[in-house]
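Quick one:
INPUT:
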């Protein structure tokens, strides 16, 4: 039986101290419930907090005794709590008159003798309630005063706890937003490809703002075009263009202002929703993308997932992240513009090369190898029609096409198949599926891709008004390798190649009579000679022929050479600061990683020490919270500790970057470097230059006809103009895989490595280099050039 002592009194000092030590609502509610059981022994207690949302409800936070609550939320005007809400003062109910419906929110297994509901106030505001149930005897009047005092103290404590939790949640939300912004900026700056960036922006926006759809419009001419969308928006289609006066988006883009529209009666929304049906817009916000005071696009967000309208906080967050998106879009557009310039420059260069010669082989080599400067492909080929059949004439990376090779035969078969059609053929692999316009083409390339390993094919016919000349093809082992810009480039290149091939073909069809007439004239003069002289001439010719065929001579390939710039590295300041100490002078040899100078680092040392101190403070606070079994505070401090640990690492990295180090082994070549002491350097400013002089590299210009004679590792002799009486020795390191135009002829560079321990060979020196090519017959050594020219002519006339 519950005993109630008349005149019960307590100061509640210990309760007040306990409430101060517990910051959150639930621990404080438990303390209050426990204190009630001490005032009224044997009772059941439920402590409620009033959640003041649009529709206020009672939320139970703690219980004590033989009572439990059935619902997580109780209506504001329900049962006993509703009576308290109406009167705003303590209400006592007798168990005999109390109906079960009045306390249906409670789970009680004993008979209630009496029930009292006490309000908890904070000033004039109702913050909660205490519900006390007795099972043995009614509540004594002497307990009412302590309970009222306890409710008053508890109301203040719960109000303070609610305020603390609200402030904590706001701080956590701010940290979450900062983390989201950091992740957003890192994601946007992870790519400069416009086609990858646009869907990335809309997807990230939808995730952060939790909306039904995000539309990204980009400025195009006098209007905006919808280029990307995340989510569903049935009111507008992708690639739609709107100008001012043409619709809601066009008007918003014209005004360049951030707006919120959440009135369904708004005329602009009604016009936008016409015919939309399910998924119509009931709330919309939009903000422009601005970079350097110029509008580059517009972002639209429609319908929050939770059904609530957009507010000013949502619009502020959208405009904030638009800054990052605008910068990323600007960088991507710069890359796109730069690529277009490179494409135009390559087209001009290739056009000049193929129109500057009538040599058909050279024209075809330029066509298949030239585009490698701006596009990536594994193989390009040109096949020309000869006698009604296609012959592969040029393949990228190959100086000669062997028609009997299996790969060449396989390629010729695919070119013949594509040449049947007068249209372009574009086939690629996406996932495990071959994508092509026709089923027949898909099946044909399915086997070819499996055997060759390629994943993309594009071919275009070479044809003019006089008929078809052949076909040009490009292949890649990567799917979707060729963008729309690349396809446009190939089409333009095919048109230029058609003209060049037609001109070169006509030139090669000149009759051979110009070559045969001089030969016949010489034969008539020889036969007119007397017999003895004719015999002597034949003997001399036979001896010369034997000499040319069997006497070996050393074969050397020579070419003009120049010393390539020595490998150098610039030592640059990574941070703003003043040079403090300099440890080297001009001409000093340094090792990689050697410290050349120090910059003033007081601020960075202070920042490092401050970050360490804050990290240690957060860790200490977290440990105290863990010891006090305060998981929430420990979690907050753990976040702070992690943040300051990261700041400590960044501060230490900044401190380390105040040391100017040499990136390579070499010699300091900056004159009067000691005068840099005390000079202020901006981040990126040059401090010194270090060059490597241990070895020198010479670029030797080798005629394209001599390239097959050479290979890496061959010895070379060098005479430099600066040292006419000294001979240097070296070895061929690399043969350049691509050619360049040098003195109106095409050459390949052989990179000759020459030891240079004394540093006498310097960049820019010129001379003559001879490269060993082995022992060859005298005729081959002396007449190789003439023979190759003659063979090329004969093959162009008769070969196939």
């Amino acid at each position: 039986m519950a005993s109630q002592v008349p005149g019960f009194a307590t100061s509640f000092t210990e309760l007040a101290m306990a409430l101060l030590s517990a910051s959150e609502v639930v621990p404080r509610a438990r303390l209050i419930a426990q204190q009630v059981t001490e005032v009224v022994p044997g009772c059941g207690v439920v402590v409620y907090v009033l959640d003041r949302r649009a529709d206020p409800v009672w939320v139970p936070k703690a219980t004590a005794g033989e009572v439990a609550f059935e619902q997580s939320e109780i209506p504001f005007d329900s049962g006993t709590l509703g009576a308290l809400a109406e009167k705003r003062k303590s209400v006592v109910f007798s168990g005999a008159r109390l109906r079960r419906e009045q306390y249906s929110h409670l789970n009680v297994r004993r008979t209630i003798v009496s029930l009292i509901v006490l309000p908890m106030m904070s000033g004039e505001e109702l913050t909660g309630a205490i519900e006390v149930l007795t099972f043995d005897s009614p509540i004594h009047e002497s307990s009412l005063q302590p309970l009222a005092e306890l409710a008053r103290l508890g109301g203040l404590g719960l109000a303070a706890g609610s305020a603390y939790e609200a402030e904590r949640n706001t701080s956590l939300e701010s940290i979450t937003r900062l983390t989201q912004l950091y992740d957003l900026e890192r994601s946007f700056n992870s790519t400069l490809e416009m086609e990858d960036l646009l869907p990335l922006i809309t997807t990230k926006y939808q995730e952060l703002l939790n909306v039904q759809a995000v539309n990204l419009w980009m400025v195009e001419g006098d209007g905006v075009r919808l280029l990307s969308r995340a989510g569903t928006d049935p009111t507008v289609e992708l690639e739609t263009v709107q100008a001012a006066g043409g619709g809601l988006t066009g008007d918003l883009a014209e005004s360049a202002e951030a707006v919120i529209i959440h009135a369904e009666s708004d005329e602009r929304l009604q016009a936008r929703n016409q015919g939309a049906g399910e998924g119509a817009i009931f709330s919309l916000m939009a903000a422009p993308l601005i970079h350097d005071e110029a509008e580059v696009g517009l972002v639209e967000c429609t319908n929050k997932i939770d059904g609530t309208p957009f507010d000013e906080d949502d619009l502020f967050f959208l405009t904030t992240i638009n800054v990052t998106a605008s910068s990323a879009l600007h960088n991507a557009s710069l890359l796109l513009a730069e690529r277009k310039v490179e494409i135009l420059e390559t087209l001009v260069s290739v056009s000049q090369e193929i129109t500057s010669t009538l040599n058909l082989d050279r024209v075809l080599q330029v066509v298949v190898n030239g585009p490698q400067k701006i596009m990536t492909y594994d193989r390009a080929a040109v096949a020309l029609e000869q006698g009604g059949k296609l012959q592969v004439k040029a393949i990228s990376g190959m100086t000669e096409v062997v028609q009997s090779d299996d790969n060449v035969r396989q390629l010729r078969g695919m070119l013949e198949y594509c040449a049947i059609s007068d249209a372009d053929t574009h086939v690629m692999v996406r996932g495990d599926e071959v994508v092509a316009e026709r089923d027949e083409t898909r099946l044909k390339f399915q086997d070819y891709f499996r055997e060759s390993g390629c994943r993309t094919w594009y071919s275009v016919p070479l044809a003019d008004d006089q008929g078809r000349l052949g076909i040009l093809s490009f292949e890649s082992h990567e799917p979707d390798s060729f963008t729309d810009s690349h396809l446009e480039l190939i089409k333009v290149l095919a048109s230029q190649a058609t003209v060049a091939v037609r001109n070169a073909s006509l030139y090669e069809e000149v009759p051979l009579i110009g070559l045969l007439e001089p030969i016949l004239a010489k034969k008539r003069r020889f036969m007119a000679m007397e017999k003895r002289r004719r015999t002597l001439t034949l003997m001399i010719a036979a001896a010369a022929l034997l000499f040319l065929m069997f006497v070996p001579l050393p074969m050397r390939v020579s070419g003009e050479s120049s010393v390539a710039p020595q490998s150098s590295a610039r030592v640059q300041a990574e941070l703003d600061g003043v040079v403090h100490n300099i440890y080297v002078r001009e001409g000093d040899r340094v090792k990689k990683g050697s410290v050349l100078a120090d910059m003033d680092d007081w601020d960075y040392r202070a920042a490092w020490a401050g970050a360490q101190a804050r990290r240690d403070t957060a860790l200490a606070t977290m440990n105290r919270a863990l010891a006090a079994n305060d998981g929430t505070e420990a979690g907050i401090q753990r976040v702070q500790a992690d943040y300051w640990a990261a700041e400590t690492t960044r501060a230490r990295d900044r401190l380390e970057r105040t040391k100017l180090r040499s990136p390579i082994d070499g010699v300091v070549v900056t004159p009067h470097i000691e005068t840099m002491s005390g000079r202020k350097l901006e981040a990126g400013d040059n401090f010194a230059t270090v060059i490597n002089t241990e070895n020198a590299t010479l670029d030797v210009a080798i005629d394209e006809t001599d390239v097959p004679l050479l290979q890496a590792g061959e010895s070379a002799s060098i005479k430099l103009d600066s040292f006419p009486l000294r001979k240097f020795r070296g070895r061929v390191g690399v043969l350049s895989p691509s050619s360049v135009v040098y003195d109106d002829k095409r050459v390949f560079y052989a990179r000759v490595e020459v030891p240079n321990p004394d540093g006498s060979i310097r960049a820019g020196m010129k001379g003559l280099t001879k490269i060993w090519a082995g022992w060859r017959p005298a005729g081959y050594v002396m007449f190789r050039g003439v023979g190759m020219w003659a063979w090329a002519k004969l093959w162009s006339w008769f070969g196939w």
